[in-house]
Every structure is written in C-alpha cells, then in structure tokens.
Design the sequence.
C-alpha cells in the first residue's frame, strides 16, 4: 500500500511537471495540433512512467527469477498459498482505500449523468435527413459530440448558420470528443489528481482555437466571425461533454486568429516534450529509491532487535546475541534483565547437514520424485502444517518465499535453503524473517518422497518450492 501511495503522489507531481511546461512554453503558441498531442501524451506518460519505475513486477514474472537474487536454477513446483485473516481493525491505508473508491463512484456517476443529458437531447430532438445535425427545441448552445452536432432550432433561420455548422464539423472531423471523454474517464480513475481538470480545460481551448482557425482559413470574414462569437456567448451547464461553439474564450480566441507560427515556437515544441519526459523519469527514479529506502526503514523499525534472527541461505541459524548486562538503578538496586529473546528457527536436521558433495544433483530426470500421495497431497500437507506467524499477521507482512531442497536417493529431504525472501533488505526484520523460518521449517520436515530415477537408477533431484503467504 505504501508503494501505491507513492505511485499516486508521483503521478500527480509528474503531471504537474508536464502541465507547468505546457503553460510556460506552449500555451501561447498557435501549435494547436502539437499542443493537443502534448497534453494527451502528458496524461498517459505521467501515469505510465512512474508505473514502469515503481511497479516493475507488474510487467514480468521473470523478475521473480532475476540473476543475483540467489534463486537456484532448478525445477519450480506449483505455488502453495497459505492464507490467514488479519485479526485487527481496518488500517488507516485501508480507510484511504475506501475514500478513494467513493471518489471513483462519484465521478463515474457524474459522467453517467452527463451522458444521459445528451441522450435526452437526442431522444427529444430531430435529426436532419441530409446531415448529422440534430435540431433541439431546448435553449442550448451549438455543440458537437462525436459524429453528431446539436443545434438549437432557433438557429435555423440565422444568416450565420453555415459558419456555425462548419465550426462544429471541424470538431467532428478532428475527433475532439474523444479527448473530452478520455479526460473524464481518467478523472474517474485518478480523481485525486488536480491537474486532470486543468488538462481538460486546456484541451477544450485548443479545440476551439483549431476550429476557429479552420473556419477563418475557409474564407469566413474575421470581423463577421467575431460578431458570431459574441452573439453565441452563452454556456450550457448540462452539456459539458460536447464541444461548444463558444467556450467563454472569446478574447483569447480572437488573439489566436491572427497569431502566426514562428520558428522559435517550433523549436520549443521540439525541445519541451523530450525535456519534460526526462525530468519526469529522473523524478520517478528518485521516488523508487525513496520507496526502497522507506521500506527498509519500516521493516527495520517495526521489528524488535532481539527477534531479528535470519535464516541463512545454507539453512543454518546464527546464535542469538547475548543478553546485555544488568543495569543498576540510582537507588543501588539491580534492575532485572530484559526478557529473553524468542527461540530461533529450528536448526537443520541431520539429513540436511549430511555431506553429499560426491553425488551429482539433477534438475532434469526421466522420472521425477513424487510426494507421498502426489502433488495434491503435497499441497494439503503444506496448507495443514504451515502456520502463518503472528508477528507477520500483526505487521500485515505477506509475499512469496522460495525454498530450495534436494530429494535424496532414499527420498529424504536435504540441503533445504531459503533462496528468495519476501524482502531483500539488509535489515531483514522479524516479520519477514518469521515467514522465511516457517517455510524453512515445514519444507525441511517433509516426509520422505518417492525418489527420482534416471536411466533406471535413483538420483538426487533439486526443487524450488514457492510458498505464498497471503492475508485476507
């Protein structure tokens, strides 16, 4: 959950970087098509770059077997899930999750209401036979939504009807409605991001600038078109998904009529987007390092020092540290010593410590070893014998532990090792260590398997067994 919160914050700040660069360098330039692409790309990249940086495990399961993690190249059995119910009240992060879900429901409901308003206009209006124009008796401003333009019936007999239709046709041909719906959907998913409404507002402005310039270039007199803009200076609050003929931007729209595209503007367009992407990537990498450092600090601070006994990769367990000497109070009395640490995980059995270096270990054989009763019996054995450690449940620690072991010629289990832990931090922590120790304990104490054979002879075979600890 901490990583998810960091990801959301990183996405908000990343979109802030992109939007600030747009306001400073691009907003005043008549690069309408590029500015539209820039804003849509910013909306996607601000969530994609932190996602790739902070959550790489979501893209490839190969990260579980990355080199340098101590994972042994051996046969990997099907994972066994050990579930438990956390015996505690919902955490603060869980409460935030419910708040986030309520926000998504609210914005989704708002989008549905807006779509229903357009549907109501469509149902009560009349579509012209020769074009995709819907004439409405309601007092609405001219607007378009995807392939249909919605015009008030009072506009039929006006002298500037052709200019209005030409303006809305530009919106339709340029698929401007896609931008609006896309930003609305993004606001449902990421409603806590305050820059998404600003991106939508800027996109609406660009849509109007683009349509205005196209109408002027088509031969419409600028003075006449200016009068049309002032005549249509009204908004409809109910129709907020459409591309309105006027978006209360008359002053800026008039300025953009005559603004020319310069070489300096094109140079800024070439430089700004790559530069903004580089800044966001550097920031996302910094967030990843901060998240890793935070997880290390959290595990180390939550784990009592006297219980942080780590299972070594070779299966051995270091002795617990000696208790500190008794301290003397100011009154001269000797204070009682602190309570002894809990017992360390069980040491490896004699079979585990047996040296079999002279024998080769196979990872591929003709007949693989089998757990007594088959693989279903193996899963049942682990589910019944693995106990979710109490300290791990209290600290909501969950994840997958990979344990490697060798099935000997007589079916006994040796060389049990924890080869991949839930966390790879230097300060392992008591909660994560307890899961490692429990997985090691149960795997090393498994009953004898039916040994594997190769070319008719029993051989030693190595396995990796993933055990997933999961809280409900």
Sequence:
């Amino acid at each position: 959950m901490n990583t998810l919160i960091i990801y959301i914050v990183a996405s908000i700040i990343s979109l802030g970087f992109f939007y600030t660069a747009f306001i400073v360098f691009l907003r005043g330039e008549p690069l309408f098509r590029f500015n539209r692409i820039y804003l849509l790309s910013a909306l996607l990249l601000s969530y994609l770059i932190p996602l790739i940086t902070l959550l790489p495990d979501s893209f490839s399961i190969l990260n579980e077997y990355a080199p340098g993690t101590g994972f042994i190249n051996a046969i990997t059995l099907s994972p066994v899930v050990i579930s438990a119910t956390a015996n505690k009240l919902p955490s603060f992060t869980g409460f935030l999750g419910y708040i986030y879900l309520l926000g998504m429901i609210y914005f989704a409901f708002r989008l549905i209401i807006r779509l229903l308003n357009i549907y109501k206009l469509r149902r009560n209006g009349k579509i012209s036979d020769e074009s995709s124009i819907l004439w409405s008796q309601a007092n609405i401003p001219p607007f378009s939504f995807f392939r249909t333009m919605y015009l008030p019936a009072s506009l039929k007999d006006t002298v500037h009807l052709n200019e209005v239709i030409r303006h809305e046709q530009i919106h339709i041909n340029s698929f401007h409605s896609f931008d609006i719906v896309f930003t609305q959907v993004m606001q449902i998913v990421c409603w806590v991001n305050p820059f998404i409404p600003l991106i939508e507002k800027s996109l609406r402005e660009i849509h109007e600038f683009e349509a205005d310039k196209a109408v002027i270039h088509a031969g419409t007199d600028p003075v006449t078109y200016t009068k049309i803009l002032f005549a249509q200076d009204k908004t409809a609050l109910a129709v907020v998904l459409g591309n309105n003929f006027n978006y209360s931007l008359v002053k800026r729209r008039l300025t953009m009529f005559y603004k020319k595209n310069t070489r300096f503007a094109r140079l800024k367009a070439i430089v700004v987007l790559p530069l903004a992407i580089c800044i966001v990537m550097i920031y996302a990498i910094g967030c990843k390092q901060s998240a890793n450092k935070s997880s290390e600090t959290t595990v180390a601070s939550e784990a009592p020092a006297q219980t942080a006994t780590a299972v070594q990769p070779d299966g051995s367990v270091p002795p617990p540290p000696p208790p500190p000497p008794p301290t003397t109070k100011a009154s001269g009395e000797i204070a009682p010593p602190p309570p002894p640490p809990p017992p360390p995980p069980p040491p490896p059995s004699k079979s585990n410590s047996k040296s079999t270096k002279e024998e080769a270990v196979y990872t591929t054989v003709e007949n693989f070893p089998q757990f007594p009763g088959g693989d279903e019996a193996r899963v049942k054995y682990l589910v019944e014998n693995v106990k979710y450690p109490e300290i791990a449940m209290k600290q909501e620690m969950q994840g997958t532990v990979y344990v490697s072991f060798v099935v000997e010629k007589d079916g006994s289990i040796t060389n049990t090792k924890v080869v991949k832990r839930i966390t790879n931090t230097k300060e392992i922590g008591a909660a994560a260590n307890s899961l490692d120790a429990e997985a090691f304990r149960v795997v090393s104490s498994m009953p004898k398997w039916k040994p594997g054979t190769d070319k008719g002879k029993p051989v030693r075979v190595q396995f990796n067994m993933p055990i997933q600890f999961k809280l409900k």
Notes: The chain has a mean pLDDT of 79. The longest strand covers residues 457-471. The CA atoms of residues 160 and 228 lie 7 Å apart. The longest helix spans residues 263-302.
